[in-house]
Amino acid sequence: MKLNVGGLIVYFPYDYIYPEQYAYMCELKKALDAKGHCLLEMPSGTGKTTTLLSLVVAYMLENPHDVRKLIYCSRTVPEIEKVMEELKKLLLYYEKQDGEYPHLVGLVLSSRKNLCIHPEVSTEREGKIVDGKCHSLTASYIRERHNYDDTTPICQYYEGFSLDGKESTMPYGVYSIDDLKQYGRDRNWCPYFLSRFVINHANIVVYSYHYLLDPKIAEVVSKELTKESVVIFDEAHNIDNVCIDSMSVKVNKRIIDRATENINLLERTVAEMREDDHKKLQDEYQRLVEGLRDASVARETDVILSNPVLPDAILTEAVPGNIRNAEHFISFLKRFIEYLKTRLRVQHVVQESPAGFLKDIQTKVCIERKPLRFCAERLASLLRTLEISDLTDFSPVILITHLATLVATYTKGFTIIVEPFDDKTPTVSNPILHVSCLDSSIAIKPVFDRFQTVVITSGTLSPMDMYPKILNFHPVIMSSFTMTLARPCLLPMIVSKGNDQVAISSKYETREDNAVIRNYGQLLVEVAANVPDGIVCFFTSYLYLESVVASWYDQGVIDSLQRYKLLFIETQDSAETSFALMYYIKACESGRGAVLLSVARGKVSEGVDFDHHLGRAVLMFGIPYVYTQSRILKARLDYLRDQFQIKENDFLTFDAMRHAAQCVGRAIRGKTDYGIMIFADKRFSRSDKRSKLPKWIQEHLKDSLTNLSTEEAVQIAKRWLRQMAQPFTREDQLGVSLLTLEQLQSLEASKIQEQAQQN
Amino acid sequence: MVDEEEQKEYRWETGYEKTWEAIKEDDDGFLEASVADIIQRAKRKRQAQKQGNSKLGMMRHLYVILDCSDSMSSQDLKPTRLLCTVKIMENFIEEFFDQNPISQMGIIIMHNKRAEKISDLAGNARKHIKAINNLKQTSLIGEPSLQNSLEMALRALKLLPSHASREILVVMGSLTTCDPGDINTTILNLKSEGVRCSVIGLAAEVHVCRRLANETGGLYNVILDDCHFKDLLYQQVDPPPAALTLESNLIKMGFPHQMSVEGTEEPLTMCMCHVDSTDEGSKLNTGGYYCPQCYSKYCELPVECRACGLTLVSAPHLARSYHHLFPAANYDEITYENQTLICFACQKNFSETDKQVYRCPNCTKIFCINCDIFVHDILHTCPGCATNLSTFQIAHNTTQ
What we know:
heterodimer; A: 759 residues; seven-stranded parallel beta sheet; 35 helices; globular; B: alpha/beta; three-stranded mixed beta sheet; 16 strands
């Protein structure tokens, strides 16, 4: 249908629209008009993707000079594929309505692993190996060598692409991963490099967060994207952690050892080369004198594991003299690694600032800050010169140089922590050196600065005022939308006490209490007896999960549980977990019913959807606070307090509640779905916790549901389940939570907006 | 009086109830109202779907699969799920044979992961009611196995002739099924054999039941309370539209007659129905129905002749199935704008609360919602049309 959103005609490829989708479009339009950033929360399953796409595409067609490009960032490959599906549908709808396909190119960019069509390379399973193999076929010196030596293998697809791929433009259309592969096969072009090339002029680009946030990759891939772009981060509730992870480095003994081996190998290679091909090294030296700018434009294929974010100064400056010579650089690295080794030889925890760390290096091994900054770039150059094609083996030493560059580049927002042992096993010596980024705004700052509109959206962004603070930006629009529902399809409940009136809570003092554990067990058994099919439980940590399950075993809870449902447990081993998940699904499908015990912040809580029968109830045992004794966290909290005036407690609660919301949100994936959400902890009923839940959950969490005993909760659940099982069709939704064009028009736009948006 | 005392348990023994929540508020009680609304609409829709002149599976062969597992001892239906089910089931069986006189029924129970046939396919209500009543004493243990019982029912239904409509009705209190193999293959088998499986859940929606019903073209419903349970069960009384695989055959039937020769006393004979039953020995008596083919005597109809296999029915039986083919016309839903003051059938005064009223398309009389449902569920003829000769004929001419 064609909608009129604030004067803009939007084509919406469905016959019906949810009221909140319309409200969402209105808000998004305002943000685009204002050319500012925005933060939008809308529950999962209400068609965020298609709403976003249809509005932005309409805007792009209407105002081609204001918005030239849409960059859609998602987390996983299946999610990316879903976006492409929606986009295809939308553009086909345009064609059907207007009789002409819109003049847009939309495509996906993914890793080589997903895009490679080379018969041998594409059979590899692991991303790094594919990258390495690809590199060994397409690097500039390999291709040069092929020119005079035919036996050197090269990739025919890359050759095909570089021969005539760059002159032609792609026809209008939407290219998903499979389409790109097919397109590449038809023309004998490499889909990966094709899409890397095309994203610079494509109108719609869909790729993973990392291509924009991870400075190592963003530098290579996303540098040339135009300023008049709309950037969308979908499922962005964890965006600050992604930012931080992309800027942090962790080094342990094993990495150091392997890096030392790398360096020895490098040394030998350099020595050999010194004898055979003296000139090459000399050339490199010259190049470095002239500055890195030339080196960095060498060939796009060479820079597959490029430097961390480099201030522009570095690229224009010449590499300092003391690391220009290959031998000198190697001995420089050796010294640095020796230094790291001594730092790891500690008995107690050390925490220091980058400045202190640099000073210490200076006094101990006489390394200055400036050469350290060039470390990463210098190593990349050396590897190129030595014509080492398989970079995967060199990842440890590359990591070390990244560390050096990071430490030397940033003095603020980072900390260095050396821990001699793991907290869980204080007797086993396992020293780790963390260079940890504390400020999530560092990585995302270039994105906010460069692009005119950045949209951060997810199903769970509450409390929203935290994100502008920790990401350090100023949104023009900040809205939370609820789900308009024809029936109350979610039932959040806070269970605060067991049948024996003992308060249940996972707080530190009571978590090992037998009465609490027994009551948790009782709750689960009761729920399992009355809720059909799948139930998912989230614990606060693996440690707690294990101890609770052990006590349940002794108390006989496990036995009574297994009378109703089968039991599956998530472990830290991902293969084991996916096995458990597979059988969990099978048990739900076959009617036996199953309970999955998993951990908040684990793999299950983030990536897996439990729609319909796979998750009729979600139980949250305790509040999933992050492990507060971790020194990295403490450092980050200190930093947040000093820099952004965020109280520790506020941040911890914010973090815990967004994870809790994320966990329970797994159960509802659409308007026809229904699910129970049980928060089993007394502390959830406090208003500081409750008010931080997303609006769409809070709305259904009435006061009468916030302080229940096990028995009361089960009674309510039982009745509610019966009501939800009544047949429910589209006609029932129509007019309430589903609108046709006429209904939409007849309801005044403002009225709908008022209803759906409560911010 | 005494009976009533026994039926009731003490208040404190019942489940946890919040009676004050039964009071519906309009602002906050949005939940109750909307769900009730949806049910009401579903009822109407069911009514609307009923088409005259469609082919119905009249010779029904229905296996009722009854859950007798641990979960049936739950007290959310009073006094327990099982006793409540037994009671409603008794009425259902009577009603079923009343409305579908040429059909047969069998009963399977599932408990302790096993299936057990407590009464074979037969057309006699009394035997089934007795079997069902015996269930009151069975011990409710273990989990049910849906697969085992479906397989058992399927084995019996497979052998039926192609013109028979094969059906299974599962009443399931448990939320889990403990099966020896993959239930999906069983569901596919049922589908390929054209067995229509309906499920009534007593607790909540179970995915596998939903799929069973959807795949085989049956209905899946979950009860809200005992009244709703009754409603849903009685929904099964109406014969379903014939499956596509069902062949149309001419069926040979016998219309037995009482042998009474003027002036002579009937000889004392034994009837075939009781000739080898153990608990209720066969008695010599005079009256009875005689098979027109082989002259075996039966004391009840309808029945399948044990000697020659002929289906024996009486003419009124067949006539009773007739109304399924000529249902009363569906009423149109119209908004109430003071068209008339009272409901034509029950004489109820319409008030502000009646937003919708219902009008018969033939006689244009106005009815209330309750009468609408009563007319179409039970009466099967429109009082407005029936009291007016001209419209009565119109109605019958259009449907024929």
